[in-house]
């Protein structure tokens, strides 16, 4: 297997290397006037090291990371839990679906003004935004996942003596996992995009806030460092859930 | 194993069905698509609403929840849990019954030996062949020692060879365990091979319950006869034993050689699709070869049913349209027809 994947990975790296080389050359040749606006890749990396060394990047990154983790974890947990209940119990679904279908289309950042008034500028605000951002997609993917389980499997489990709770634990949840993971994977990246936007607008700490400060100081190199961190985090979160999904469902799918 | 009794069962499909299945009996529910076979199975295990009563050893089970009826059900699509490997699929029912580890392992071993699936335990359903999936699904149904086993056309999706092999295997296993069984099929040949008794169901009504031979030779009314394909039945008056299990019977003007190793051959029957028809005299010895004239042809899509008039009896034969055209057959044409030895049934 490794023999097949290794050459493929090498080929994936090549375009990135070419892109970075071109970036460096174009910036060094001063095609774009003023190196402040388009610093070479090496300068960005130098600043990257500097920001890590003085702790600015680490502090802001940790602020964002903790908000994303708490908001995403609680939002997903609530989404999965309520999604299971709504997917499994028709009465609950009928009662809650009209409310959620009204709230779901509101973009997560649309909640920002009202949440600022409710919670003020503090740690709770970005966490609440991430919670909302994660909750709805995970909720609907979980409902879809639970409902997509063929009735034949539920009947088979019932006939084999399983109680409703056992059917939920041993049949519905495992079979709904692919759908649940689709929601988690998509929202893991989205949580980072939303937290940056929220920090840029309303919160004085975090990668988003660092971006805004760098913009006001015309520090394009710091802006690019922040964008690289953001890109890596979005990708890492998505890859983590792809990995987990494969670990949990890869054997039987 | 209990005696199962269905008393005046009715619902949106089934109409006043009453039948008793003896302890350890294998009853085949036979009927065309849409006749109500699956609905009746669903009624028995509690998956469909109904009026009337289902009794196990005289005790009604109508109010007992599905999960506590202790019925094994092999669905048409098998419904093997895709996320569980073979081992966990088989022990699923035992785990829900909270059996101890040793008991579960012992039963698993028993099932593996019985169905020869020990080598499949670590595999997932997606990695199994059609026949292997059938055997695993059967093991899962049998593992919790059900009081009644229901099978809904379990071999439908398999090729003819695997199907035949599994039928034989299935009957051996069910008889070895002595489990009372209801097997659903629309195929008479499958039904007669598997069942102790057949129950013919048509439009939600039970038309006849009898042994395969009784049903084939004495169908109860037009519906049953039509479903069986209106077999040709010859009444025989005496026969001569030829040896090697063969007899030569005198059946109303037809001298028919048939396989018969019992006593008192009174009837011989053959299905219309088993008769070979030819315009020219077929080669080989003139055994079970007769002549007649085609007096009627009825076309059903790719198959043509013809009536061949002989001096003493009209014979129904069913042949493929392309063969009918290739042989240049038509009404009024004289033909030869052969009753193949292996397709004759005696009674």
Please tell me about this protein's structure.
- The complex is a heterodimer of chains A (253) and B (347).
- With 253 residues, chain A is mainly α.
- Chain A has a single domain (61-249), classed as MetI-like fold.
- Helices cover 81% and strands 0% of the residues of chain A.
- Chain A contains 10 helices and no strands.
- The mean pLDDT of chain A is 90.
- By secondary structure, chain B is of the alpha+beta class.
- Chain B starts with a strand and ends with a strand.
- Classes of the chains: A mainly alpha (253), B alpha+beta (347).
Find the structural class of chain B using helix and strand composition: alpha+beta
What is the helix tally of chain B?
10
Share in β-strands of chain A: under 5%
Indicate the overall shape of chain B: elongated
Number of helices of chain A: 10
What top-tier CATH class of chain A fits best?
Answer: Mainly Alpha
What's the CATH class label of the largest domain in chain B? Alpha Beta
């Amino acid at each position: 297997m490794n023999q097949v994947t290794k050459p493929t990975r090498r080929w994936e790296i090549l375009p990135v290397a070419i892109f970075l080389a071109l970036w460096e050359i174009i910036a060094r040749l001063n095609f774009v006037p003023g190196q402040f606006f388009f610093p070479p890749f090496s300068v960005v990396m130098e600043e990257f090291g500097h920001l890590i060394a003085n702790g600015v990047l680490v502090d802001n990154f940790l602020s964002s990371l903790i908000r994303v983790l708490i908001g995403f974890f609680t939002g997903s947990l609530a989404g999965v839990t309520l999604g299971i209940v709504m997917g499994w119990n028709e009465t609950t679904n009928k009662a809650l679906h009209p409310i959620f279908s009204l709230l779901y289309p509101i973009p997560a950042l649309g909640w920002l003004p009202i949440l600022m008034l409710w919670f003020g500028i503090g740690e709770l605000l970005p966490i609440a935004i991430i919670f909302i951002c994660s909750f709805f997609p995970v909720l609907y993917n979980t409902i879809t996942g639970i409902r997509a389980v063929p009735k034949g499997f539920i009947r088979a489990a019932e006939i084999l003596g399983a109680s409703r709770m056992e059917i939920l634990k041993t049949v519905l949840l495992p079979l709904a996992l692919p759908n649940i993971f689709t929601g988690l994977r998509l929202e893991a990246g989205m949580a980072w995009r939303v937290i940056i936007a929220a920090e840029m607008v309303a919160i004085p700490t975090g990668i988003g806030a660092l971006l805004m400060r760098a913009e006001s100081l015309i520090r394009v190199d710091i802006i690019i460092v922040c964008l690289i961190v953001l890109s890596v985090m979005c990708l890492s979160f998505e890859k983590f859930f792809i990995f987990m999904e494969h670990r949990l469902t890869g054997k039987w799918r | 194993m209990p005696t199962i009794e269905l008393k005046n069962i009715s619902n949106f499909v089934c109409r006043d069905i009453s039948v008793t299945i003896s302890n350890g009996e294998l009853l085949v529910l036979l009927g065309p698509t849409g006749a109500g076979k699956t609905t009746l199975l669903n009624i028995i295990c509690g998956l469909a609403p109904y009026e009337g009563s289902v009794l196990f050893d005289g005790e009604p089970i109508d109010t007992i929840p599905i999960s506590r009826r202790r019925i094994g059900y092999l669905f048409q699509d098998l419904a093997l849990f895709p996320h569980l490997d073979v081992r966990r699929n088989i022990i699923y029912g035992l785990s829900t019954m909270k059996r101890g580890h040793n008991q579960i392992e012992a039963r698993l071993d028993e099932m593996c030996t019985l169905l020869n699936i020990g080598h499949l335990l670590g595999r997932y359903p997606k990695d199994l062949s059609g026949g292997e999936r059938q055997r695993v699904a059967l093991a899962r149904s049998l593992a919790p020692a059900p009081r009644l086993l229901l099978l809904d056309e379990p071999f439908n999706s398999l090729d003819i060879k695997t199907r035949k092999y599994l039928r034989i295997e299935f009957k051996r296993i069910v008889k070895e365990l002595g489990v009372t069984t209801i097997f659903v099929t629309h195929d008479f040949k499958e039904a007669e091979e598997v069942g102790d008794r057949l129950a013919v169901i048509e439009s939600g009504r039970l038309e006849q319950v009898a042994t395969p031979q009784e049903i084939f030779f004495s169908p109860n009314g037009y519906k049953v006869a039509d479903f069986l394909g209106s077999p040709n039945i010859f009444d025989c008056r005496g026969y001569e034993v030829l040896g090697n299990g063969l007899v030569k019977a005198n059946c109303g003007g037809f001298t028919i050689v048939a396989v018969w190793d019992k006593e008192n051959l009174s009837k011989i029957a053959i299905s219309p699709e088993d008769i070979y028809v030819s315009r020219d005299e077929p080669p080989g010895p003139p055994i079970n070869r007769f002549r007649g004239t085609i007096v009627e042809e009825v076309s059903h899509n790719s198959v043509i049913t013809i009536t061949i008039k002989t001096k003493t009896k009209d014979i129904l034969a069913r042949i493929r349209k392309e063969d009918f055209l290739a042989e240049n057959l038509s009404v009024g044409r004289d033909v030869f027809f052969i009753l193949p030895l292996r397709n004759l049934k005696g009674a």
